[in-house]
Amino acid sequence: MSEKVLMKGNEAIAEAAIRAGCRHYFGYPITPQTELAAYMAKRMPKIGGTFLQAESEISAINMVYGVAGAGYRVMTSSSSPGVSLKQEGISYIAGADLPALIINVQRGGPGLGGIQPSQSDYFQATKGGGHGDYHLIVLAPASVQEMADLTAHAFDLADKYRMPTMILADGTMGQMMEPVSLPEETTSKVEKPWAVTGTNCEREHNIINSLYLVPEQLEKKNFERFEKYAKVEENEVMYEEYMMDDAEYCIVAFGIAARVSKNAITAARAKGIKVGMIRPITLWPFPKEAIAKAADKVKAFISVELSMGQMIEDIKLAEECRKPVVLCNRTGGMIPDPEQILKTIDTLIGGNN
């Protein structure tokens, strides 16, 4: 790791991607992720890479499709409405089993909404925002350091499983500045014998496609893909437990909501209330087993979200209705503060006495 430098989260993602071997970026500017595209515009030409501001988000994601098919590390970035425009292309990339990285630095919605931070794209990211049966690996950083670390990890996972990955950050993470140790340059090249690189008459043609007109073939492919997803769920779940050893109440939060929740936990413990937190780092695969294990001992769960309540559904599924799950939220670009979370805890305790 290098010496620490002060960077915005958006810039940390861009530099980490370059160091992970990404030399192709296609995007379109939208707040609050524009610094990422601007960073790539400056750096890519200097290192022999390709930066292209496409005429639209739809064009950008289909350029990603092409480069991914050629076997190169490639990425795009946008914010909520822009990612919505990319959904058809993301479904095509998933259907063609191609590795690629999509960055979503979320803003409020629906529609144009506002430019302030949000977490209301959780459903879109984790449930498959485009058409068909597919998943993305979805990673949720809670610091600028994780913005960098998870970017490198996302490229590795994409190549390992031949599937698209997503960094789902809220606008606060993109705009926040913190010291960060950037990863070393990646020198190893992943072998991709399936890539469309030209044959030189030495092998059969590779074909990248997501079209299967024979229904039995499409069904077979979908079942095979979900066998791969099962391996991802088995091997790639990431989460942080915070003060869960003796916790009687469990907060579940990610991104900026998790950082605020830690302050609320400190305040609650000062009052003698035993609160802990499970912070999902992979939103898909979701840490279901960790939630289920916590349900054996805690009295209730609090889902802290910058949305009208989306992750709360996965918490309820994981704990199988054994314990109450309540929502503590702000939306429209607002962020819950520790006092609001503490008030939710106090109300919950009152209802559980």
Give a brief description.
With 353 residues, the protein is of the alpha/beta class. 41% of the residues lie in helices and 19% in strands.
Q: SSE layout and pairings?
A:
Layout: E1 4-8, H1 9-19, E2 24-27, H2 34-43, E3 50-53, H3 57-69, E4 74-78, H4 80-85, H5 87-95, E5 101-106, H6 122-126, E6 137-139, H7 144-161, E7 165-170, H8 171-175, E8 177-181, H9 215-235, E9 239-242, E10 249-252, H10 256-270, E11 275-280, E12 282-284, H11 288-295, E13 300-305, H12 311-319, E14 325-329, H13 338-352
Parallel strand pairs: 2-3, 2-4, 4-5, 5-7, 6-7, 10-11, 10-13, 13-14
Antiparallel strand pairs: 1-8, 6-12, 9-11
Helix pairs in contact: 1-2, 1-7, 3-5, 10-13, 11-12
What does this structure look like?
It contains 13 helices and 14 strands. The chain has helices at residues 9-19, 34-43, 57-69, 80-85, 87-95, 122-126, 144-161, 171-175, 215-235, 256-270, 288-295, 311-319, 338-352; strands spanning 4-8, 24-27, 50-53, 74-78, 101-106, 137-139, 165-170, 177-181, 239-242, 249-252, 275-280, 282-284, 300-305, 325-329. Helix 1 packs parallel to helix 2, helix 1 packs parallel to helix 7 and helix 3 (57-69) packs parallel to helix 5 (87-95). The chain has two domains: 4-235, Rossmann fold (3-Layer(aba) Sandwich); 240-352, 3-Layer(aba) Sandwich (Rossmann fold), CATH 3.40.50. The protein starts with a strand and ends with a helix. The mean pLDDT is 95. Helices cover 41% and strands 19% of the residues. The strands form three sheets. A seven-stranded mixed sheet has the order 3-2-4-5-7-6-12, with helices on both faces. A five-stranded mixed sheet has the order 9-11-10-13-14, sandwiched between helices. It is of the alpha/beta class.
